[in-house]
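Researcher: Structure prediction, please.
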Amino acid sequence: MDTRARDPFYNIGLWPYLAFCLGWFIWMFPAVLFFRQVGRVKGRETFPMDGPVLILANHTAAFDPAWVGFAALRPCHYMASAALFRIRWLAPIITALGAFPKAKFTKDRDSMATLNELYAKGHCIMIFPEGTRTWDGRNIPVLPGIGRLVKRLNARVVFARMPTAFLAQPRWASYPRYVPLSVEFSPPVTFEGKTEEEIVAAVNEGVRIDPELEVLDVRCFGVRLAWGLPEYLWACPHCLAEESIVVSNTHSDEISCRACESRWRIDVQARLNPLTPGLHRESVARAHDRMTDRLGPRPRLRDDAPAPILSADRARVQRMPRGGAPIIVAEGALRLNEGSLSVVGEGGVLRWEQPLREIEMVSLEVKNALFIRVAGELHQIFPEGQSTVKWGWFLHQWWILSRPEDAASLPQGL
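Model: Predicted structure follows.
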């Protein structure tokens, strides 16, 4: 394969160079004016301005690559979810900003080859070792392969932490907020003589942030702060009623439960402030933990229902061939059982079934689209009228339970 085709910064002519310059200028202008990155960067004085460097950063917001790249004042290549490159208007923009595609939670030889070539040429490369964005600031255990990668490259590593980005753009939120952003760079480090396990432990510590952080700054503000939250809090954290949380019709910063009538106001710190007596203030992260912890290690919404674990009366499964149009595989009632995911038609006719052990990846992509990978092929799951985040969480938990021998190496996040 021609390496130049995979390298957006390779000197092949005027237009690629102009696209790169324009892309970074378009980002830099609003970054200075709106996000006020300048003056909020720690450790930039030790950041290497030449030679190969591998940035390992925590990942909480969609714009993390641009924020870190701007803070470093050095053009960076970065791995981006392959799903983003299927969006026609977005693909050329992120390519101009240095992105190259990586299939999430699976081995991607083309992506690894690109990374190896770029590092060998002396480029700056950014990786998010957690493998996906976090939902509420809590770090996800980094993927074990990062230890092998750093060791193989004998990489010079800089850790980048963005402690406030999860408040500026929570993954669950429909709208961003203004919270002063900061980027913290570590001095460059190498891991010569370290084991893969020691490297993984160091990376976990290097990208760790405080998910309970509150930014007490009078400039913090946001609108429609509750929009998007019912997808993430797919059951009431107080009464556990399924799909019961709704955004108020009159106050877009408030949510309520249709079952127990509890009410909360969401603030720019991603806190639930109770409007109902007897409840207490807590972060979205803690509310989600209380919701899921009550379901136990083998989660079910209803203990008295042996099967299925989860169901949707109407659903669609479609295969997503690379470079082609989606192909509908099955339509009907979606069922998650302990060992399989299936679609059942009228009269109980089985139209499609997928053993959980054979699933290679469970992932939530752009706009909370739910995907699974089977035998190298992507399938998208559409549970009509239900939260794909809920389905993704349950499917992910039972997928891991179906493979106890591999549990330690499987991705812990969506």
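Model: The radius of gyration is 22 Å.
Researcher: Thanks, that helps.
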